Amino acid sequence: MYQTLLTSLENNILTVTINRPDKLNALNKIVIAELEEVTAQINADELIKAAIITGTGQKAFVAGADISEFVGLSSGEGMDLARRGQEVFSKIENSAKPIIAVVNGFALGGGCELAMACHFRIASENAQFGQPELNLGLIPGYGGTQRLPQLIGKGRALEFLMTGNMINATTALQWGLVNYVVSQEELLQKAISILETINKKAPLAITKCITAVNAGYTTNGYITELEAFGESFATEDMKEGAAAFLEKRRPIFTGR
């Protein structure tokens, strides 16, 4: 049914696995489109009461976006790219049914943004989180500048965004980015156990909880983010950052 996703339904819980192991499950246009499709499926199928999003293997949840799709984009095209990601991740965030991220390794860039779009997160002990877009002369474009401070606070979020540094699962737990840290062996079962408890509650009330909590964060910040993301594509620094990433070398930024 899907090119880049594996799905499995058991006990009313749909497990969605991003399956691009050769690319560390990186997000490309097909993955984004299929995440939109599967979110619609989750909400439409009465047999599905909740869902898990994870990645194939034990190395990466999603290790970022597919940078090869960024090369040569204009500012307007960059905005369109960000707008598309924001739209899909907003549908995940506003799903009427719980969707949780099971982070089984690297969650970087768009992967961290995807995890944050889910209703909450459970991480393996080897998980690593980061928003390294500045290394490409960019900023997060799929909602990261908005959801990150909501979860960890403004000061930590700005440091995280401006350094591009990664944090480990223990720090993510201390900062409130994830709810639990468990071993790889316990990861899926921990998520299933929580969702089984949630699935025993009143479905309409669960939906209203999601709606009410999300309403407290309604803002035009997402528009500011996508405009700034798009404008970054007109800079020489972004072109240098993307080229350096693909050529596996350190970028030389000039502020132009």
What do these coordinates show?
- The protein is of the alpha/beta class.
- The protein is 47% helix and 17% strand.
- The protein contains ten helices and ten strands.
- The strands form two sheets. The chain has a six-stranded mixed beta sheet, with helices on both faces. It has a four-stranded mixed beta sheet with strand order 4-6-8-9.
- The protein is globular.
Task: Set down the secondary structure blueprint.
Blueprint: E1 5-10, E2 13-18, H1 29-44, E3 50-55, E4 60-62, H2 75-93, E5 99-103, E6 106-108, H3 110-117, E7 120-124, E8 128-130, H4 144-152, H5 154-163, E9 166-168, H6 169-175, E10 180-182, H7 184-198, H8 203-215, H9 221-232, H10 236-247
Parallel strand pairs: 2-3, 3-5, 4-6, 5-7, 6-8, 7-10
Antiparallel strand pairs: 1-2, 8-9
Short description:
By secondary structure, this protein is an alpha/beta fold. It has helices at residues 29-44, 75-93, 110-117, 144-152, 154-163, 169-175, 184-198, 203-215, 221-232, 236-247; strands spanning 5-10, 13-18, 50-55, 60-62, 99-103, 106-108, 120-124, 128-130, 166-168, 180-182.
